[in-house]
Amino acid sequence: MTKKSVLFLSGIVSILLITLDRVGTFRLCGANTYGSCMDVAYNVIILFLPVLPLFLFSLITFKMSEGVFQAWWRFARVFVPLAMFLILITPAYTHNWMFPVTKGTVSVALSLLFVVVSLVQIIRKHLKAGNQGLSESI
Fold this sequence. Notes:
The chain is mainly alpha-helical.
């Protein structure tokens, strides 16, 4: 995928997620009591949460060199679907008080891991590309 298509698609999904979150599952489902519609809406929002940092980093890498973008994109195109799959198979609720592994905690943890690894990879590749350009000019 190109920089523009990654930026556009992740931007559209991010706008939809933020809009759904701002509207809220209660108003979205139009129910007076908690129901299955709210569960489905919540699970969809949580499932697509890793797309928000994807959009952020596609914005960051948009003005960078193609090599930096491609290095990051090779990582992101594997990590984001894997994170979404892990969120999908994680239970929504747990009765374990010591290690509460739920969709929300897995989603936040994987998004934070994506942010950290992406930052390290982008900075490393950007510095490496800068050093190569510097050594070629000498």
